[in-house]
Amino acid sequence: DKGTYPYYMLKEIDEQPNVMRKLASLYTQESGRPNVNQALINTMKQADRIYIVGAGTSYHAGLVGKKLFEKLTHVPTEVHVASEFAYENPLLSDNPFFIFLSQSGETADSREVLVNVNAHDYKSLTITNVENSTLFREATYTMLLHAGPEISVASTKAYTAQIGVEAILAKALGEAKQQVIAEEFDIRQQLGLVATGMQAIIDEKEMIEDLAKKYFVPTSKAFYIGRGIDQTVSLESALKLKEISYVQAEGFASGELKHGTIALIEDGTPVVGIITQKRTANLTRSNLQETMSRGAKTFTIVRNGLAQEGDTIIIPDVDEMITPLLSVVPAQLIAYYTSLNKGLDVDRPRNLAKSVTVE
Ligand code: M6R
């Protein structure tokens, strides 16, 4: 039931702070230690490489997961689009461990990969929102997202819940592998900060709707750019905009633009810079400048403390490893308000199904 909300998507965006609190209370202890199935951690400890498999938004959550696993556990991690992995038979390491990310647990392409993984007796974990779904039943281990039903075709709270669960799991595995960085990463406290931070962004809805009207409603194409973890969020931000507002949007590595794609920038093309990492903030700023001098209308989603100028959405300060949990929220709201102000059916965009059960 969407209650007083005009669309499920807005309700589901609003639910994200509570989902973060729920993950903290279910998967961590008062002491801050992760509360994760020990057998799962023991199995993962044997792995020499992690393979994350997903489609669409779940694939994008996997890209963030790679950064988390590599930082916190030092286990090399690959992320694969399910429909590609299924038929390309990528070369595997000696001891692979598979993580399937799927909100619905029913995506046919991911299931095809899991059938193969099981045929080889490899161990796997499904992270899903739906208990007893196909991917839930067929994997060795499972972790639930506890996000509550996600009805809107555009995935929002499942993405942030997937990243939350990946961060908890990476922390648990990193500790088991005695990585100092994992021991020092207080995931329980961070998820609390994320919940408060998400709420602060959500409270700025009206300002974000104004930006959506100014930049995105009048346009047919747009760019999100960033570096590193911000680049992965740029992909998810662009996907949100494409699927519900039909603006042709691209997420891009900001330094790669000038190797060709910058040719698409025209007078008035909106370009959003996502800037949450201290080390690369200035670089992304100068890439934004490059688009401005070719006529782009730019604004930024910036982590508090990093210099801001022009139209800016500030996101509260959290650990640099988990900034996607906050930087994606303005992009979700931008997509929502662009679709709404274009008079489109936000929850049921054309040509799309909530769960894709054919290959
Ligand atoms: O249920 P899943 O997470 O496996 O679904 C994967 C994609 O189909 C899904 O994320 C899709 O990209 C969403 N519509 C994105 O908002």
Task: Describe this protein's structure.
There is one protein chain. With 359 residues, the chain is an alpha/beta fold. A five-stranded parallel β-sheet has the order 2-1-3-4-5, with helices on both faces. Strands 7-6-8-9-10 form a five-stranded parallel β-sheet, with helices on both faces. Helix content is 47%, strand content 16%. The protein binds 5-amino-5-deoxy-1-O-phosphono-D-mannitol. 5-amino-5-deoxy-1-O-phosphono-D-mannitol binds next to helix 4 and helix 12.
Main beta sheet strand tally, sense and closure: 5 strands, parallel
**Helix-strand category:** alpha/beta
**What is the number of helical segments per DSSP (H or I, 4+ residues)?**
14
Strand content bin: 15-25%
Secondary structure: helix percent: 40-55%
Rg over CA atoms, rounded to whole Å, is 20 Å
Order of helices and strands: HHHEHEHEHEHEHHHHEHEEHEEH
The general outline is globular
Say which molecules are bound, naming each kind only once: 5-amino-5-deoxy-1-O-phosphono-D-mannitol
The averaged pLDDT comes out at 96
Spatial sequence of strands, sheet with the most strands: 2-1-3-4-5
Task: Please report the total strand number as a whole number.
Answer: 10
Could you list the spans in which at least 5 consecutive residues all have pLDDT below 50? none
**Gap between N and C termini, in Å?**
31 Å
Subunit structure: Homodimer.
Main location: cytoplasm
Function: Catalyzes the first step in hexosamine metabolism, converting fructose-6P into glucosamine-6P using glutamine as a nitrogen source.
Enzyme class: transferase
